[in-house]
Amino acid sequence: MHKNNIHNKGYNLSLLKIEAPELTPFVFTNDFGKETIDFSKPEAVKVLNTALLKTHYDIAFWEFPNTNLCPAIPGRVDYIHYTNDLLKESNLTETITVLDIGTGANCIYPLLGHKVYQWKYVATDVNTQAIKVAETIVSKNGLSEHIVLKQQPNENNIFKGILTETDRFTLTLCNPPFYKNEMEALQATTRKLKGLGQGTDKVIRNFAGQAQELWYTGGEKAFLHTYLYESSLFKTNCFWYTSLVSNKDNIKSMQKSLKKLGATTVKIIEMSQGNKKSRIVAWTFLNEKEQRTWNKK
Q1: Alpha-carbon distance 290 to 90, whole Å?
Q2: Strands (E), the chain
Q3: From edge to edge, which strands make up the β-sheet containing 276-284?
Q4: What is the spatial distance between Cα 195 and Cα 274, in angstroms, rounded to a whole number?
Q5: How far apart are CA 216 and CA 230, in angstroms?
Q6: Rg (Cα) of the chain, in Å, rounded?
Q7: Rounded distance, CA 2 to CA 14, Å?
Q8: N or C terminus: which one in the chain shows less Cβ crowding within 10 Å?
Q9: What sign for the dihedral angle of Cα 106, 108, 111, 115?
Q10: What's the CA gap between 161 and 139, in Å, rounded?
Q11: Could you tell me the CA-to-CA distances from 63 to 67, 116, 180 in Å, in that order?
């Protein structure tokens, strides 16, 4: 994990139980004498992540339907920290405005990004209900001045219908859907449950998730290439476009496409959380002069 990630030494369940007593029933001592939770149970995972937000990020209200994706906080805040490093390298440290693509009902990146670095957000999603739930979370935490929700009217688009000619963002964030369809998602969940030593007679995703949150026609690669193409239609509207990339085999095709689309700089930022490896791909279409004068516009 990133050196600034407060979760890089694991969970302090004793502290979390004090700050969020609702976590207590889900905590048990394993065979090694260590307190933990059952990560195969969606309700335990959701309560843990709610407790983390309450204890470490002052997010008192984080409620959404159990059918929606419940993100793991340590990995999400890692993305925030690594992109903050990217901004500092580019001398972008003031008035950071971020466009979050596919924020979901949990609205996690805007919540973390504002709480940790005071970034301002526009957060988008194609799902009407997800937008409504996210707006309630933002409002109840008193963040409506800092986080604005905007619905993408066309599920086939990413930036079209959202960005206008005059919009300017320092950064975009995106955590693409991994899978091509529901079957592929269920197969992945089955493998995960086996790894956790759980039965697979009834497959339940421990982090839940609905269709738009988990799969996209053509999978992660197809989504990413739509993302790349549409970013090239708004070359000067954003300094850094970024996305998480789960499958490392997608990197080469992304680099090839970005070269054709006219990206001036492409960066690959490696990340790891425990045994999980992922990476951030970041790109810009701005030339050196445009980068130097970005803050002067």
Answers
A1: 12
A2: 27-29, 35-37, 97-101, 120-125, 147-151, 169-174, 238-245, 265-273, 276-284
A3: 147-151, 120-125, 97-101, 169-174, 238-245, 276-284, 265-273
A4: 14
A5: 16
A6: 19
A7: 23
A8: C
A9: positive
A10: 24
A11: 12, 20, 28
How would you write the pLDDT of the chain (297 residues) with one tens digit per residue?
999 999 999 999 999 999 999 999 999 999 889 999 988 888 999 999 999 999 999 999 999 998 888 999 999 999 999 999 999 999 998 899 999 999 999 999 999 999 999 999 999 999 999 999 999 999 999 999 999 999 999 988 999 999 998 999 999 999 987 655 455 545 454 544 455 455 445 444 444 444 444 446 778 888 999 999 999 999 999 999 999 998 899 999 999 999 999 999 999 999 987 777 889 999 999 999 999 999 876
Q: What angle do CA 77, 78, 84 make, to 5 degrees?
A: 90
**Residue where the block lists tokens 């905590």:** 27
Provide the 10 A C-beta neighbour count for residue 128. Answer: 9
Report the sign of the C-alpha dihedral through residues 7, 12, 18, 21, in that order.
positive
How many CB atoms are located within 10 Å of the residue 9 CB? Answer: 8
